[in-house]
């Protein structure tokens, strides 16, 4: 054999060995890097022994802690003592398959990221699983290690960010802020705790409380903290819908289903697919609709009015009411079976009068928001004003406080909100002394009136003084008769 032929035969082997060593060194470096940071855990579920052991070995070599399972049930058992960041699961397995495993994982308070492995012919099912059950990604078998490594790294990063978000939310809650809710009183801390506990689950939640306590804000916060936060949030006010239209709004209708149904329309349940639906003022829902709603909740299917076909639902339902539903059950206006279906988990929001210590923070947060909205520069609430706010009983709760603060910010414009910026007679405040004209009439001027309103009041009282003599009134007001005529014509048009 010639030297040349010997070189040609041996060279490829030399190159292969070098590349293998180089790859091993890179793997070890990646492994050390990952282990130096936070160890990450992975569960591999596959019914084929060789497949799962090979996958587990490769993933361990990348620096991850790994447990294996032969089916979904064993993977769930392992997860109880080995809370993994990522579950890599085969789609088709005897017993509990990958789809069943993901469904069970979704019910847990904390859900790992999941990567679905599928064989030839299962791609459509895998895509449906990824979409419906929130799997992070899917890979076709045989698995290409570089692709798995990249997807695994991204899944771990997403899980890390998700955990970081949860920690931030809990830290904010400890400081009196959760989503769109604010409060540091014991009663609100209890609300925050309940919302944080139930948000990651799939349980139906009934939110109760007086009008204006923030029930819709609590529902939005639940949605934001849930695994459905990327999906839609829909709210429907059951009290605002006529009885003849509420079923169409909720469940949708086909063209020609009833008079006026000129085209088919999806209802709120379909529009909220993959997200959250809030049934506000559920206590005012007609009894006939309650029966249909109960069936939809029990079967997780909805049929549009006039349609023979049912649509499967993936919607989390929240309900809110300011009524006592147990009293409504006793009076026969609310179904008991629907109540127990909705009240799987109940959160009651306290009235503002029971958490007066929250008023200062609530009011200042509102000042900040209304400064931005109206271009004002209010910097503080005067102590005397705050004292009045904290003494008031707030029958309209947070909604009423918001209205009072918005008005006060507009009136103050800048600086401090003083008692004169509160509504007339608020919480026992003295009514401003009236302006008395030379003729002895009282000119009703008060904070909150616009210049146009004050001008109109002055013109009207001057006309009364002159016996409706417009020429004389114009002379007194130091304006031309034409100007007075134009203003009176404008007032007449407004009336």
How would you describe this protein?
Strands 2-1-3-4-5 form a 5-stranded parallel β-sheet, with helices on both faces. A 5-stranded parallel β-sheet has the order 9-12-15-8-16. Strands 6-7 form a two-stranded antiparallel ribbon. It is an alpha/beta fold. It folds into 4 domains: 155 residues, Rossmann fold (3-Layer(aba) Sandwich), CATH 3.40.50; 169 residues, Rossmann fold (3-Layer(aba) Sandwich); 76 residues, Orthogonal Bundle (Helicase, Ruva Protein, domain 3), CATH 1.10.8.60; 59 residues, Homeodomain-like (Arc Repressor Mutant, subunit A), CATH 1.10.10.60. The N terminus is likely disordered. A hairpin with a 2-residue loop joins strand 6 and strand 7. Helix content is 50%, strand content 15%. The longest helix has 34 residues. The termini are far apart. Helix 14 packs across helix 16.
